[in-house]
Amino acid sequence: MGWPRSVRARTALVVASTAAVILVAIGWWLHRDVYRQGTRIAQEQARAPLLALADQLREGVVPSRRSAVPYEVVATGRSTAVAAGGGMDVFAPGSPHVLPAPPPLSGPTDTDSGWYYTQRYIRIPERRGDGPAGRFDLSGGTYPVLFADIWAGELSTEQAAALGVAPDATLRVHVVVLPDTAEAITDNIYLLLLRAGLVSLVLISAVTYVTVRVALRPVEAIRTATASVTASDPRERVTVPATGHEIAALASTINTTLQRLDEAATRQRRFVADAAHELRSPLASLTVSLEVALAYPDRTDWPGAVATAARQTGRLRSLAEDLLLLARLDAHAPTTGSGTVDLAALVSLLVGQYDLPDRPMTLTADTTAPAYARGSKGDYERLLRNLVDNAARHATSRVQVNVRNQDEQVVLSVHDDGPGIPGEDAERVFERFVRLDDARSRDLGGTGLGLPIARELAHRHRGTLALVPSGVGACFQLRLPRAPAPPDP
Predict the structure, then answer these.
(1) Which of the listed residues 33, 248, 350, 452 has the most CB atoms within 10 Å of its CB?
(2) By three-state DSSP, how is residue 119 classified?
(3) pLDDT band at 167 (very low <50, low <70, confident <90, very high)
(4) Tally of CB atoms within 10 A around 408
(5) Total domain count, the chain
(6) Are 38 and 186 in contact, with CB atoms under 8 Å apart?
(7) Nearest-angstrom CA–CA distance, 294 and 469
(8) Are 238 and 222 in contact (CB under 8 A)?
(9) CA neighbor of 201 nearest in space, from 26, 12, 28, 31
């Protein structure tokens, strides 16, 4: 039979199995304890016949063979028993006594009180012959035996003669403790525990099944509600139970997840709309330019038309590359390479090779020592170029790039002397397709994706990118974990 697929059935089965193991352990412990207690009670119950037999012997009376408990009276100087009964008399007449004789006593002992006795485990020898076993067949078994000693010197000559012992003999009364009562009680307890255990397992399984079924009703409601959620419309929310238990926490977490999905879907729709709008502008300009050139070929400045087309095509290519890079970053795709990069050397190289715009501007780098960080050189180059491009578009005449080591971090800042960015827009500039001065940015070739890409790349390398306060212009600061210098080749 296979493992049940239902959570209710599985839980009931696991709980029933666990309860069965616990009940078996408790039953085993109770079985042993009941048997031990029953044996102790049987020993206490055998004490009264032992003391009664001792009193009869002190009065010179030979005990009767009819007895509720097996007993045997032995004495020093005799090879046969003085008296036996209750199952110990089934051994052949005239045969030696079964239980051991006592050591000889020379005077009265503590037995004078009539309450002194001793307990010992003794093995009963095998019975000879095929005669009837009597009420109890004790041969060949080991049983607890209670015994008490009596000195015949305490008796009169007539009493000793009546018992058939010498005047200075020592008598010992043996009473065998039978385990029948303890075994009967134990067997009854065992059967009772077995029936109670089976009924308990059935009840535990049923109660567990019903309880889990009731407890999972909110989960079923959550499943039904979330089944209607689609990627295009994640506005559905589940009902949070008022109980405050784990299922309520689950419902709250699912609602939070659905809210994030809704926000992500909203951002995606806005991103698609913004991307379509950005693509439409250069396409419209390119289409109009080409249609006008084709409509009036004789009056068209073909070099100018081709330059305009090339410029708009370049904008389209740049935008497509940015969109592909954002898609790769959103999908958490692995970087193209990793290692240790000297950001100071990379900044110096970028500043030396950067194409300045067609207006007076200076681009300088301030690096005092190597600054190593782990990551992809290509990603760092793209990040720095985006920051420098943004600064160059908005700078008045100067862009300064600084790199320094600060404790366990590498700090890189790009500072321009442009109009700056208001404090309330310090985070808004990192949103996609956001331009604080839309017309000017479009004219200067910005796509609104440079800073978002730069921040994504910074996060990709366990760093941060933020706009920090500056007296003049805007200052973007990149912080990255500092890496140890690579070994010399």
Answers:
(1) 452
(2) strand
(3) confident
(4) 8
(5) 3
(6) yes
(7) 52
(8) yes
(9) 12
